[in-house]
Design brief:
Layout: H1 2-13, E1 16-17, E2 29-30, H2 33-51, H3 58-80, H4 84-100, H5 121-138, H6 145-163, H7 169-186, H8 198-218, H9 227-231, H10 233-248, H11 261-267, H12 272-293, H13 297-327
Antiparallel strand pairs: 1-2
Helix pairs in contact: 1-2, 2-3, 2-7, 2-8, 3-4, 3-8, 4-5, 5-8, 5-10, 6-7, 6-8, 6-12, 6-13, 7-8, 12-13
Length: 328
């Protein structure tokens, strides 16, 4: 219901992503898909709250407020194309705000480092939130890729949040809601895409993944602090190599290029669909590894079943999209 309206509105107002030498799509496509993802996620959560109760707490407030601010930043950028450094400053301010509301990395496995993490909590938390938010933005370069990876990562974080002791059901709930919202978005985003999530969708989703990994995983058992690095390996590897590559070439890490992992797969001869399938498969495998190390066989089995169902749903969505395209 939301996405067709957003697509029509984008076309009427000229809010579309125009093809250029760095982008692979050939026609102008709406870049405001983040509106549907944000609205669906927030509306679903608020609806569930109305049916039950509002779980008050600064952690939850930080997640919802920070996610909304990231969404608004991305939305303004999608419309007005903000300077990269300005966006970075705003992202740091948002991360600082949620840190003050309690969304912070404050534990580390015993023996991993020989000193307390407390004094480094703020910079590490900000680096994590800003880094993951932009990492999701970086992989949003192929139809269906970012959405598929976000869906897998969300399901993984949700199950780990339930598997660790103590469990964090609220974090798991928001992660499941995000997965459902993005899964619905994918019905219009698989190749050939009719809409992109844009910066509003990628920054919002990336922020939620970063924040939920802190509140639902890193605050669990000591070794759990390492699990998000495994879960989010695909976007982390991509942004790390992209930043290092640009710096070594004497360029700003904020200047976009066409040398991300998905670009290299496309240049190697893989189609957009196969590129998405390859990188999503990697996300599934590392997610399975992380879930196994979370220490619960029950949740590992649930993860496997959930991912099989998700892959089935993604396949149906892809078939549906191909059928609609052929009919048109």
């Amino acid at each position: 219901m939301i996405l067709p309206f957003v697509i029509d509105f984008s076309k009427k107002e000229g809010l579309v992503d125009t093809p250029n030498e760095r982008k692979i799509h050939k026609i102008p496509i709406s870049r405001l898909g983040g509106i549907a993802i944000w609205l669906s996620t927030m509306a679903t959560f608020l609806f569930l709250v109305i049916l039950s109760y509002y779980p008050y707490g600064s952690l939850l407030s930080g997640i919802l407020l920070g996610g909304t601010l990231m969404f608004l930043l991305g939305l303004v950028d999608d419309i007005y194309n903000l300077p990269a450094k300005f966006k970075l400053v705003i992202q740091i301010l948002v991360a600082t705000l949620v840190y003050l509301l309690g969304v912070k990395i404050d534990i580390v496995p015993n023996g991993v480092i020989p000193f307390s993490l407390e004094s480094f909590s703020y910079p590490i938390t900000v680096l994590w939130i800003v880094g993951i938010s932009n990492a999701i933005n970086f992989i949003d370069g192929v139809d269906g890729l970012a959405g598929s990876v976000i869906t897998v990562n969300s399901i993984t974080l949700a199950l780990i949040a339930l598997a660790v002791s103590p469990g964090y059901p609220i974090s798991a709930l928001i992660a499941f809601i995000l997965a459902g919202s993005v899964l619905a978005f994918l019905t219009y985003n698989f190749n050939p895409a009719r809409i992109f999530m844009g910066d509003s969708g990628s920054l919002f989703s990336g922020f939620l993944l970063a924040a939920l990994s802190i509140t639902g995983v890193m605050k669990g058992a000591a070794l759990a602090i390492l699990l998000p690095f495994i879960v989010l390996a695909v976007p982390i590897i991509d942004i790390t190599f992209a930043s290092l590559r640009r710096i070594l070439k004497g360029k700003s890490p904020f200047v976009a290029d066409a040398e991300h992992i998905h670009h290299k797969l496309l240049k190697a001869g893989f189609s957009q669909k196969k590129t998405t399938a390859i990188m999503t498969s990697v996300a599934i495998v590392v997610g399975a590894i992380a879930t196994y190390f979370a220490g619960s066989i029950k949740h590992y089995i649930i993860y496997v079943i959930a991912l099989v169902l998700i892959m089935f749903c993604l396949s149906l969505i892809n078939v549906f999209r191909n059928k609609k395209t052929s009919e048109n």
